[in-house]
Design a protein that fits this description.
By secondary structure, the protein is of the alpha/beta class. The protein has 12 helices and 10 strands. It has a single domain, classed as TIM Barrel, CATH 3.20.20.70. Helix 6 links the parallel strand 7 (163-167) and strand 8 (188-193). Keywords: Iron, Iron-sulfur, Metal-binding. This is Radical SAM protein.
Amino acid sequence: MQSKKTIKGRGAQKNTPNKFLQHIYEIREDFLEFCRIEDEEPESNKTQYIPIFPKTIVNKVDSPDVGMLYSMNPYQGCEHGCIYCYARNTHEYWGYSAGLDFERRILVKKSAPELLEAKIKHKNWKAQTIVMSGNTDCYQPAEQKFEITRKCLEVFLKYRHPVGIITKNALILRDLDILKELHAHNLVGVNISVTSLSEKTRRTLEPRTASIQKRLKTIRVLSENNIPVNAMLAPIIPGINSHELLPLAKAVADNGASSFAITIVRLNGAIGQIFTDWIKKAMPDRADKVLHLIQDCHGGSINDSRFGLRNRGEGKVAAQIHDMAKLARLRYFKEKEGPKLNKDLHEQYKDGQMKLFK
């Protein structure tokens, strides 16, 4: 059971059961009614930062649908609260819910810089672009407090190792000094996520993210400093932001993005329950329509785990979206392309300095 009261500042409006746990924690309806009458919150909405101590930090990416070979995540869970986030399901591996827990219980890997340094110094390691983050945002609000991402960038610079960054937070500009140094050696590419030009849509879908104007400014500032930016216009959610694809592409191109990419939303695992619950509260007038459009993109289901199709979708709705993306590239990105990062410098810097003598 759950409260009819909206939980402000969060995407998910409930905690879904963790499929790996034997017992289910549930707040009873009579307790929720008591809280409503007394004007009290049934549980704390405060974000908790929980330190964890992993043995490794760099992950091999096996999915053929993801354009990366290696990723690393300084944080697990993400306070941005994006309702559609595919990473929600991974929070269950840590014993938490993919719902509110994902946004309120942030696992912090303070040892990430040391683990990264040990990995890329290993004698058997051959430089490949490592992406921060393949799972949760490395510039989420926790980064302002812990500065783990910045320390990792310092490691990449020290060892002249290529790094990719995916974020939707303007906090990345704090590290412009390091990014400029990395770019001087062609060692960095940045992906900025922009899902709408409407602040109302942004606040509803992604309650604790940077504003659209801040994201466009971030693209512009990075591009003015010659740091290559790929705009992630993803996910495209039919019935919510699909009509914005062309103006989105134009906006990021006008601000200097060198390329863009899209995916079509898919709602695997617990995300299906979380998203369905959310949209019936946030957009009750079009909830059924949006869910049906998503199903149309995935063979009649909101879930899709098929390699090659799960991010692209299929059917008429998906085809229309990809046709718009092709048109956007012809109009706004005809002469543009993404960077190829330098993998050749790292071997000379494995001991932390240039090998002048051999």
